[in-house]
Amino acid sequence: MSLTDTVIIGAGPYGSSLAAHLRARGVDHQILGRPMLAWRNYMPPGMLLRSEAFASNLHAPRSGFTVEDYCRQKGIPYEPMGMALPLEMFVDYALWFQANLVGEIQPVDVVNLRRVDGHFQLALSDGRSLIARKVVIALGLKGFAQTPPALQGLPERFVSHSERYGNLGWARDKDVAIVGGGQSALGLSALLHELGARPHILMREADVVWYQRPQAARSILSKLKGPDAGLGRGWRSLLLSECPGLFHLLDNAWRERIMEKSYGASGAWWLHDRVVDKVKISFRSEVRSASIDNDRVVLRVLTGNQEVSVSADHVIAATGFKTDMRQHAFLSKDIADEISVNGGLPELTSNYETQIPGLYVIGPASAHSFGPVMRFVYGTRHASPCVARHIAGSLKVGATQRVWSAGEAPMPERTGE
Ligand SMILES: Cc1cc2nc3c(=O)[nH]c(=O)nc-3n(C[C@H](O)[C@H](O)[C@H](O)COP(=O)(O)OP(=O)(O)OC[C@H]3O[C@@H](n4cnc5c(N)ncnc54)[C@H](O)[C@@H]3O)c2cc1C
């Protein structure tokens, strides 16, 4: 068993940025998880990032580690906007960031997290145990995929969720129905079409909302009317991108209203020409039920007032994510119940701390408290310095009250809940 002040669970953009900040502050910590796992394994090769290059930086405690710095070092042409950052380049950038600013990342999973005598005990997939005073959960969208009830009973080989897409080679020459009208649905449809599959998008919306291509040179007036921000153009985007602390001050009803109305289904500008007139799209379409017939999925779809049937070799649910902390199987029941305040949503303090002192949540699962920016890498700008400052400060206070030695550390208990 080893002791540490802080454990970060997750080695994606959020966990890595926080680790860089803790390291810079000299806070004893360990970071667990497979480096950039979701981006390396569960996103399709050839994907382009939806976020602009300037909004895709992991947040460093000092200058010199942005996507722009990375491109300069590697001799890659860089544009803050309109560059359409390839997935592979972003992953390489993040690994470069980790190599320079983050200490050793332990590529293990936490299989159990529980409280013992006011500390946290973590059981790891390699059989080891850790005791920590502070734990930060930075697990991204893992476990939050939302599949419509109509598709839930289908055998796995006929249905999948867009959260887990690596190589799409299996789909060549196949009919693939994609349910959803957002970036994931549109992006997958373009890649599938280009590799020789026949994608068919079924979306509830009456049309696709396309983001406009950013213009590099704009007049001052145009910039005043609609400033460029991490989440897109406009004053509303600017506020939501730069002031997550203000969002945190709002009451629940306001937060929910903003979350509902912000950044709904839409497609990046660079997808427009790859999708329009190339991919079949059925608008105002909702899947009512699904069955398997003759080794194919048959979807009953309500399109306008008509029910039609759509047949495919496979159906992909590109239907988004819903935060529910209870989906994290490694959390002990008492922790899961205590932090899942509002139907699975964690209610966080202004320092990202949950109802359980010393337990923090950052990344997409903190969006209910800090707004839509937390669903994007851009949110690391606010989360990592804020949490690092709070942890460093409270550990200092704790250190004067209690000196933690191996002799008085809580004993590990049996795990396997
Ligand atoms: C298809 C797609 C495209 C996207 N495009 C963009 C984009 O263009 N721009 C943008 O800003 N955002 C984008 N996002 C959102 C983006 O994925 C998230 O904002 C971001 O990855 C969240 O980072 P994170 O560090 O919280 O988690 P992740 O990057 O998901 O990392 C999770 C980490 O947790 C670890 N882990 C998981 N389980 C355990 C466990 N039990 N124990 C220990 N470690 C564990 C994993 O190994 C991994 O290291 C996209 C999302 C999807 C699905």
UniProtKB/TrEMBL annotation:
Entry keyword Nucleotide-binding: no
UniProt keyword Transmembrane present: no
Entries under InterPro entries matching the protein: FAD/NAD-bd_sf (IPR036188), Lys/Orn_oxygenase (IPR025700)
Assigned EC number: 1.18.1.2
Pathway: Siderophore biosynthesis
One term of GO molecular function: ferredoxin-NADP+ reductase activity
Enzyme type, top EC level: oxidoreductase
Keyword entries, A-Z: FAD, Flavoprotein, NADP, Oxidoreductase
UniProt cofactor(s): FAD
PANTHER family in the cross-refs: L-ORNITHINE N(5)-MONOOXYGENASE (PTHR38663:SF1), PTHR38663
Family designation: Belongs to the lysine N(6)-hydroxylase/L-ornithine N(5)-oxygenase family.
Protein name: Ferredoxin--NADP reductase
Source organism of this protein record: Paraburkholderia ultramafica
